[in-house]
Amino acid sequence: MNVTTERIDVQNVIDGNPISRLQMRVILLCFLVVFLDGYDTAVIGFVAPALAKAWSVPPPALKPLLSAALFGLAAGALAAGPLADRIGRKVVLVISVALFGGLTLLSAFATDLTQLTILRFLTGLGLGAAMPNATTLTAEYCPARHRSFLVTVMFCGFTLGSAGGGFLGGFLIPAYGWQSAFWVGGLAPLALAAALITLLPESVQFLVVRRGGGMRVAGILRRLAPGRAVTGDAVFVTPDLGAAQARSSLGSLFQNGLAAGTACLWLTYFMGLLVIFLLRSWLPTLVTGAGLSLERAAMLGGAFELGGTVGALLVAWCMDRFGAHRAIALSYLLGAVTVCVVAYLVAAPLLLAPAIFMAGFFLSGSQTSLSPLAAAFYPTHARATGVAWMLGMGRFGGILGALSGGVLLGLGWDFQAILTALAVPALGAAAAIWFKGRWRGREIGGGQQTAGLQLGHG
């Protein structure tokens, strides 16, 4: 008697069932990861004015400190993506969270600028490795009909964490000293890393592509679709299983029509982070130099990050309804306009806060939306690499932004001149992502079939 082995497409199981408790747990845990990632990335910008005062350091001398973590972020992202495509998203994610938590905690004990700069670089390695793996893991557990929105909701943890750095820093630093911000940023990730070990599942798509064991895959699918009987004897597949056996993950970023889209994603993320990290690193220093208090400066930094959270949700909603590329390009364009408006409101404190909120709304909102776009663009065997290398290459824009703030201050540029100049890279980001949407090669959700996940048209 012939026995037919059941063939199960795991993506169809994810797409064809309601969102399960397991999927909600993955989204929540990854949200917490990027929340703490955002806090620990942004905290140095809020600590910097207090450090300059405590250690008698002029603001331009803080350039190496403010950019050190960004070099680590780039290196961590570039290394972690291919590693996660080889050994798994979960393993790399747990290690990276423990790494940035432990090193942030050690930063509270730094006694001079050199020590803190070295610790911030090492912290950046963990920060850079965590974000692309949290993004990839979330995308691979989300059904196509909700993927863009749910990945963006998860990624909003980063902007909320960054905003928390501003609001919490405005309370903690004046009362308990700059070290208190690092205590919070170190202990919380260490606790989360311990929880991830037992609570976070590995990507089921990764397990299929890397032949991770039928019983393990079947166990996860039974939790994703409780009403379906799944055994370990079934043959599990993904839409891009054949491609996964043939190419390295890094080389895949430039094959089968992906090269132009990869270049556009890198350029867009580079330009966007140049603007965002200059603002994130130097906004508190710029506004205190313009005459506002340290507490007010921290709150304005928090308003920028909070605006990014709200903006990301709206951009994600627009991506599913009006086209992913059109929505993101328009948001960058409006961000360029808004940052010019902010430049001329330093003398109007009542208008400055809402204007900075709107700058974050458009700039950080569009930047956050690039992650679900990239996660959907690449096939499973190269997805972590594709997302990580977009983030990693973009970090060099963040480095340039953090360094150029100090350079421009040293050259005598004021608040108004620096912010007006930021409209140029914001317009460049809008143009690059618009071009990707028009490219007739590997198109998300367009007429051609891709090996990646799906998002809205345009």
From TrEMBL:
Chief place where the protein resides: membrane
Per the UniProt record, one Pfam family is MFS_1
PROSITE patterns associated with the record: MFS (PS50850), SUGAR_TRANSPORT_1 (PS00216), SUGAR_TRANSPORT_2 (PS00217)
Q: Which residues form a coiled coil?
A: none
The GO molecular function terms of this record are: carboxylic acid transmembrane transporter activity
Q: Which family does it belong to?
A: Belongs to the major facilitator superfamily. Aromatic acid:H(+) symporter (AAHS) (TC 2.A.1.15) family.
Q: Where is the signal peptide?
A: none
- Name the SUPFAM superfamilies on file: MFS general substrate transporter (SSF103473)
Q: What is this protein called?
A: Major facilitator superfamily MFS_1
Cellular compartment(s): Cell inner membrane
List residues of the Major facilitator superfamily (MFS) profile domain.
26-440
What NCBIfam families is this protein classified in? Answer: 2A0115
Task: Give the membrane topology.
Answer: Multi-pass membrane protein
Q: Carries keyword Cell membrane? A: yes
PANTHER family this protein is in? CARBOXYLIC ACID TRANSPORTER PROTEIN HOMOLOG (PTHR23508:SF10)
Keywords annotated in UniProt: Cell inner membrane, Cell membrane, Membrane, Plasmid, Transmembrane, Transmembrane helix, Transport
Membrane spanning residue stretches? 26-52, 64-84, 91-111, 117-137, 149-175, 181-201, 257-279, 299-317, 329-347, 353-375, 387-409, 415-435
CC annotations in GO: plasma membrane
